[in-house]
Design brief:
By secondary structure, this protein is an alpha/beta fold. It has helices spanning 17-20, 43-46, 54-57, 117-128, 131-136, 158-164, 174-195, 204-217, 230-241, 261-283, 295-311, 324-334, 341-352, 357-366, 379-390, 397-410; strands at 33-39, 61-66, 70-78, 88-96, 104-109, 137-142, 223-228, 246-252, 314-315, 321-322, 460-463. Strand 2 (61-66) and strand 3 (70-78) form a beta hairpin.
Length: 467
């Protein structure tokens, strides 16, 4: 069967692969306040900070009881750290108090960029983290700047998101690339219109500086931190800025901060490809697997079905279609957790039988869309905003096409999903400010934990993962 032409919608409205895992422990129920207490950090906790920032570090913060056993608060931080006396924004935070002898707080970031730490702690704090950890540490989640409740970036409304997910572009053709370019420009204008000047300050370095204010607010001399996927980059950035304030760090699914966006995309694509092969190998051991033969033969069967969706988006009973991008995004989403392997098996069985509804369900879950058509997070918009500041993108057509070929060769199933990333920032109103470099965090003390990636010397317990 000939390969179908590559048709995909642009990554600006794609729930990017790195951010999908952030939603696994996230939902969006209402944070209902109950009782409240007010705290502020002492000079001993704050440490040596610039005079212009001292009021942020010592601000009184009201923690209100919420959601049955949790405490919620808003923390004020400067919008622009170069001019802290001008505008400020508020970060939403939640904590699950330690159940035993408290040793401090453990700040959590689920990844993305664009994942909600508030949602992760609210929905998974009592089940995901061990009793031993919860006994000794407050579990603290926050929405980083630009994410959901913390000056959340706004681009598309629900109807526009639905419409965007129904369209793919054939970027291998000049006409398809031109159409995607025009759509990118329109969507970027909506982001600027709906979010304003705050788009210039939704970067990882600013978020890392926010975490130092949060460290003081929760009452710790050193930051204890657990980050997943992109959250490892955020944690490493903090360690580079404040090495003497690094406490216990756990970075899971480590993202090398020295990689450029092309290298990041390649690593993700290959990671997803390997994860899908692992799913296939596991699936083939059962009696109800929707694919058959060897692992290579089964992968070919999935790719053939993928090509059908790419060539002709498939209708669902609810009058929505599943495009090639949606199909591939659903596959990627299921690779983030073995808990999703059975749902993927059922969805693929339906898809092979001509029913796209299971793949649509996985796609909706990854995009945090509920059955009423409401998108309950801004992860996709925040992902774009943060990456456009963190990475210098190359949207030269020849370069993007060369990278697309390399991705497709290295990861036949997922290469298309992660190609043409430079296009997403072509019309972004603010130039990138981030740099890609190795972070040594000199001055941070040794850590007794186990090491998986061993070049750094700062006290980070690192682990590998898909994201």
């Amino acid at each position: 069967m000939p390969t179908a032409p590559v048709r995909r919608r642009h990554r600006l409205i794609l729930m990017a692969a790195a951010s999908i895992g952030a939603l696994l422990l996230s939902s969006c129920s209402v944070l209902a306040p109950e009782k409240s207490t007010e705290t502020s950090a002492s000079a001993e906790i704050v440490g040596d900070v610039p005079a212009a920032l001292k009021d942020f570090y010592t601000q009184p913060v009201t923690w209100s009881s919420c959601n049955g056993g949790f405490q919620c608060a808003e923390v004020k931080v400067p919008l622009n750290y170069d001019k802290p006396g001008t505008d400020s924004i508020k970060l939403s935070a939640i904590r699950l108090p330690a159940t035993g002898k408290r040793l401090g707080a453990m700040v959590i970031n689920p990844g993305g960029p664009g994942g909600s730490g508030v949602n992760m702690v609210k929905d998974g704090g009592k089940s995901y983290f061990s009793e031993k950890l919860r006994g000794a540490y407050d579990i603290v989640g926050f929405d980083p700047r630009g994410v959901q409740r913390s000056a959340g970036v706004k681009c598309l409304d629900d109807a526009q998101m639905d419409a965007a997910r129904q369209v793919d572009f054939d970027l291998s053709t000049d006409a398809g690339l031109a159409a995607a370019d025009a759509e990118t420009k329109t969507q970027t204008e909506l982001c600027q219109q709906n979010s304003g000047s705050e788009l210039g300050y939704i970067d990882t370095v600013s978020s890392a500086k926010d975490m130092d204010i949060l460290r003081a607010v929760v009452g710790d001399k050193q930051l204890n931190y657990m980050g997943f996927s992109y959250g490892t980059k955020l944690g490493a950035t903090y360690a580079g800025l404040f090495p003497d304030r690094v406490g216990k760090f756990s970075l899971d699914g480590a993202l090398d901060p020295a990689l450029d966006i092309d290298e990041v995309s390649m690593g993700q694509a290959v990671g997803f490809e390997n994860a899908l092969r692992a799913w296939v190998a596991d699936c083939l051991t059962g009696s109800d697997c929707p694919v058959s033969g060897t692992v290579d033969e089964a992968m070919t069967q999935i790719q053939t079905l993928q090509a059908v969706y790419t060539a002709t988006p498939q209708q669902t009973p609810e009058a929505r279609v599943v495009t090639g991008t949606e199909f591939t995004g659903a596959l990627a989403f299921a690779m983030y957790s073995t808990d999703l392997w059975e749902p993927l098996k059922a969805a693929l069985a339906q898809a092979f039988a001509g029913d796209a509804s299971g793949m649509l369900m996985l796609g909706d879950y990854s995009a945090d869309r509920d059955s009423s058509g409401v998108y309950n997070s801004n992860t996709s918009a925040a992902f774009t905003a943060i990456n456009c500041l963190d990475y210098s993108m190359n949207w030269d057509t020849a370069h993007m096409r060369e990278q697309a070929e390399l991705l497709k060769k290295a990861a036949p199933t997922f290469g298309d999903l992660l190609s043409y990333s430079g296009l997403s920032c072509k019309y972004w109103p603010v130039k990138a400010t981030g740099t890609q470099e190795t972070i040594s965090a000199a001055g941070a003390g040794p850590h007794p934990g186990h090491w998986h990636h061993g070049r750094s010397r700062h006290p980070l317990c690192l682990g590998s993962g898909t994201g």
